[in-house]
Amino acid sequence: MRIASLTILCLALVSVPAFAQWSYDNGPINGSNDAWTINFGYIISDTFAAGGSTTGFQFGAWEFTGDSFSSVQWSITTAENGGTVIGSGTASKDGGTLTDSFISTNQYGYDIDKISVSGLNVATSSGTTYWLNLFNGAVPNGDPVYWDENSGKGCGGAGCPSLASESAVGTIPSEAFTIGGGAATPEPSSILLFGSGVLGLAGLLRRKLF
User: Fold this and answer.
1) Range of 194's domain?
2) What are residue 94's DSSP bridge partners?
3) How do residues 20-64 score in pLDDT, each as one tens digit?
4) What is the pTM of this model?
5) In a shared domain, residues 85 and 150
6) Rounded to an integer, what distance in angstroms lies between the CA atom of residue 61 and that of residue 87?
């Protein structure tokens, strides 16, 4: 009886529901079409459909040769660069929340890089559309930096391609980015495993009581 009790207890403990991951994908980095400035006071905004809380995102960037992002400011809002601010902050290399990975050099001589931002904990809700806003991108020498435009080609997220805007001109084609995090509901297999553990414990207690 003791072995059975221990087995059922372990089953219940290890089967605490795991949370699935979600991702909105607005398509791969293009690097050859166009790009939009995300410093010198310009703000670029793109929509995404959340699948739960947001923990990070990646986007395509154009940079002058040899440049590398040191930081970028971001916000997630309920309206185009406005409405309710769900989360905001500054991702930086020094803070360990930003990495800049070189991909290639395009036909115009710009470096095409992938910028990854991590360590977020934004309480976005599953099934809700939000705006990701990028601004005040910085490189050590102060050059302009740009968010890659891909018009949502090859996108894989629900509701893609995103809507997009630039703070000075209004509506623009959408940009290359992915964003994701943890889902708000446990995976079905975890629910079944958890339920098995709970039922086993209930049966064991019933036998002891009666």
Assistant:
1) 1-18+187-210
2) none
3) 799 999 999 999 999 999 999 999 999 999 999 999 999 999 999
4) 0.81
5) yes
6) 22
